[in-house]
Structures are given as structure tokens and as C-alpha cells.
Amino acid sequence: MATAPRPRTTTRDPGELTRRLTAWLGTRLPGAKATGVTVPASNGMSSETLLFDIDHPQPPVRSCALRLAADPAAYTVFPEYDMTRQYRTLQLVAAHTDVPVPRVLWLEEDPGPLGAPFFVMERAAGRVPPDVMPYTYDGSWLHAASDAEREHLETATIGLLARLHDQAPLPEAEFLALPGQGDALRRHVAAQRAYYAWVIDGLARSPLIEAAFDRLAQLWPREPVEPVLTWGDARIGNVVYDGFEPVAVLDWEMAALAPREVDLGWTVYLHRFFHDLTVGSGQRGLPGFLRRDRVEARYARLTGHTPRDMDFYTLYAALRHAIVMLRIAYRQAYFGEVAVPADPDTLILHHGSLRAMVQGTYWAE
To answer: Is 136 inside any structural domain?
Structure first.
């Protein structure tokens, strides 16, 4: 998937979206027009992002980004898209931490104007490590950077997580608590089980994903876990950088109250996912970048909290990603882009590394 043609993500017509966006914009800023509407091609497989400029004598900002709930007709990646929750999360992070996030401008909860709820925010200037082709491949700006430049980016990025986890106040973030019984970790994992059940409803089950859930139960942390506000989709592909300094943290749809290690495991594993793809294609990748031991040590120095049970949390990240990958593969089958094989586990792009994690051999490689 990293190098293949981009899977279909929407059935919406860009021209019609532009017309409807301009009509809506006029209700918020009389006389304004949306111009230069584009869809970024390198990142994002869930909610849709539109980039546009505001043509108006006195716009609140000139360059904007719009996050639109996924097209219900496009076999969505997640069962629901709570744009109000994302909007409130951005407001909370901006108000209570020094983690840089885009300034939010407007929230539209009525699905009428564009066919689904959305919000508009200021567009941050800079560059994002791409998913397609992955930033670990030869030719990406991050791959071409010096070791010192990547070191700076890594240090600054782990600093984002440290400051978010330490600064965000739990009382104000209570709306991000997941429903259910038990502590924050049990609720988080229960939500993933429910998501997996939704993905396979009426379709083939994944023995590998179910084995991963069983292995999680064996590795379950013994010490109580304290929740913090977690970003959720904590990876460098969701950060805008000015040079090698982060200037905007994007994509908060997976934010939740959860243990710190949920974000750390996701950050570590998602880089390894792209690195493994690159090595599998015959390239060197970025083996010294965002290494698990370095991330853990750097986070501990910044926060005083030594990450615990990281075998559990990196497996949990790979498991969560596997469920998303399975859903995306089933969506490709829905649109006739791929055929469903006899073994559904092969639809999971990283099935080999996930299996190695379940067997306890991955981090020994």
C-alpha cells in the first residue's frame, strides 16, 4: 500500500465541494469565497482534509484547512466521526499546553452544508513527513537530512508528547474518557475489541488479530496505570515542521484519556512499520531514527516517568494498526481495487511483524 496507487477514500465531487464550501463560508464571513481548494495527496486515510484560501478583504486567516467527517458512502475507516470532539480537543490543547496546534476558526455540526459535520482551522506552513511514498524511502526530505537534523526532529517530537502528557489538565479533558468499565487502559482495549468486531461484521475473522488480543492479555501491565490526555495518532506524519522544528500537531480524532505509553508505543511502532516496508523493498530505511530504546530514554529524561511494559504497548500499537489496515483492505475490496484472499491475515500489510510480536521475537531481530 505504501507504494501502490492510493486507495479510494471518497465518493465526493471536488467541484461540488468547492461550490458548497463557498456558499457556507459566506454565511460566516459575508462576501468571502473559497479559492484554491485542494486535497493533500500524501497523508490521511480517514477523515477528509481540504486545503483552501479565503478570498476576502479582511479574513481571520488567509490559508485554511478543513477537516470533514468521512464520506458515509465510502466505506468509512471508523464507525463514527465526532468532529465536535476533535474541535474541543484542539481548543483544550491550545488553551492549556504549549503544544503547537492549528488555531480553530469555525465548527459546523450541521451535515447539510457539505454532507457531513466539519471544522475549519488555520493552515500551518511547513512540511510533513509523507506516508506515500513513506519518509523512510530514498528521496524524501527527511531521509535526505543529516543525522543531526533528524536527531533534532526526534528530540523535539518526543518533547511534544512529554509536554502534552504533563500539561493537559485531566478535569478539562474528561470528555475524552472512553465509556465502559475498569481503568483507562481496559476501556481503551475494550474499545479496540468493539472496533474489530465492527470491522469483521459479516466478513472473515482474522486469526492473527485475535491471537494478538490473547497475547495482550498475557502481557497485561501489573502495576496500576494513570491516564493522561493522549494524542492517539502520535506519529511524525501528523506533524508540520518548519525545518526540523514542529509547528503544528494534527489529527486528533483518536485522542483519549489513556496511559502515556499508548502514545509512545504508537510513535515507536508506526515508524518501524514504515522502516520495515522500506527494508522489504531493498532500501536501508532509517534504522537509527526513533529507535525504541532512545525514545523511552528521552521521554524518561523529559518527564521523570520511565516508560513501562513497552512490549505490551508496542504490540498494542501493531494490533490497533492491524485492525485499521484490515478495514482499509476491506474497503479496497468494496470498491473492487483488490480481491479478498482465502487467508484474511494477508490483508494486513504488516502481518509478518505482528506475528513476530505475538511470538515475542520481533524486538530481538
So the answer is: no
Residues 22 and 80 in one domain: yes
Nearest to 344 by CA among 320, 323, 316: 323
Domain of 193: which CATH number? 3.90.1200.10
**Contact predicate 334/343, CB 8 Å:** no
Buried b (16+ CB within 10 A) or exposed e, 281-310: eeeebbeebbbbebbbebbeebbebebebb
Distances, alpha carbon 293 to alpha carbons 3, 63, 154, in Å: 29, 39, 13
Domain count, the chain: 2
Q: How many residues does the chain have?
A: 365
Residue 42: domain span: 14-122
Query: Would you tell me how many other CB atoms lie within 10 Å of the CB of residue 109?
Result: 10
Co-location of 84 and 205 in the same domain = no
Total-model pTM: 0.93
Catalytic residue among 13, 110, 166, 233: 233
Tell me if residue 233 is catalytic.
Answer: yes
DSSP alpha helix (H) spans, the chain = 14-28, 83-96, 147-167, 184-199, 207-218, 260-280, 292-303, 310-334, 351-359
CB 229 within 8 A of CB 255: yes
- Each residue of 269-318: pLDDT tens digit? 999 999 999 999 999 999 999 999 999 999 999 999 999 999 999 999 99
SS3 328: helix
